[in-house]
Amino acid sequence: VVNMGVIGSLIKQVWYINVPLTAISICVLAFLYSSRNVAFPYWVGLLVVPGVIYSLLGGRTYRTTIKGKTVLVTGASSGLGKQLAIECARRGAAKVIVVARRREKLQETAHQIQSLGSQSVVVPCDVSDAKAVEMAGKEIEEKHGTVHVLINNAGAGPWKHIEDTSAEEARRMMAVPYQAAFTSTRVFARRMMQEKNGHIMNVTSVVGYAGIPGAVGYGAARWAMRGFTRHLRADLRELGIGVTLLTPAEICDTEYFSNKSGCAGEKSYSHMPYIFHLCSTIFSITSKSAAVSGVNAMEYGWSIAAPPAWLVQPLLLLESYFPELIDWIGRLGGAACRKA
């Protein structure tokens, strides 16, 4: 795995750094060969193909096996977090610890986990409270031992324009997911570091890759998760701990993307650009599909899972070279969301 990671990293760096120079060089070579009436070796263009493929798939990290492991999932009461917990049980996890604020919803998740043959532990906890997470972490490790796989899925926050977002709302949106993920990782990574084994997956959104109107606080928190994951991967690589980022497109069956009264997305739906509503009709995925993609990435050792891959991975690649294009896509219909 280490060798593959090194080789893959080299290929990726060559792709990232040399693509403009390679393109220019090929054009110059084409001109020189054509002026000399010599057949141009088009195979030269194939030199960048490995880098393109690698960039589309995502980088490498240490892989893990879910079977027989203790897995902890935050935000597991509904939506993607619930499906991630269930998918880990389906893969043979020995124990799945589910964490969220709503005990009743966690019990529902726990029953489904148990029906798949895994043990389930319900831990009601507000992960935005660092002290509560520290206390819960200590109790979990005393009773259940090492958490081998940590999935930081908890996330919250409405889509709003800057003038509609209070300082307190911005603080809360940064508290969950970013601060919550940081604290949970700090708590549970200690034993992983001692054992030089384990895997951490952080969940963010494609919103963290583009500038989108009406998502100032929400989007900034997702950018924070993206940056945190990248630095965390570098920080833990020498200790043999894998770090994966799950960044799905719009998920059609979660409360967050529903405008029904009482749902998490009630106040956000009207602030989302029209392109998002279009995607929800044509390109959205289910939380189960996103969960499968995320767990696959951990088991295969991919640093990024971006379902649906055929849509999101090319967008992430484009964002590296043409960020203004991605921002333009994100702005489509956005201006109409602002109140007159």
TrEMBL record:
SUPFAM superfamilies linked to this entry: NAD(P)-binding Rossmann-fold domains
UniProt keyword annotations, A-Z: Membrane, Oxidoreductase, Transmembrane, Transmembrane helix
UniProt domain Ketoreductase: residue ranges: 69-249
Chain ranges passing through the membrane: 14-33, 39-57
GO CC, alphabetical: membrane
Superkingdom of source: Eukaryota
InterPro entries: KR_dom, NAD(P)-bd_dom_sf, SDR_fam
Coiled coil: none
GO molecular function ontology, one term from the record: oxidoreductase activity
Tagged with keyword Membrane: yes
Gene3D superfamilies linked to this entry: NAD(P)-binding Rossmann-like Domain
Record family assignment: Belongs to the short-chain dehydrogenases/reductases (SDR) family.
Name under which the protein is recorded: Ketoreductase domain-containing protein
Lineage: Eukaryota, Sar, Rhizaria, Cercozoa, Chlorarachniophyceae
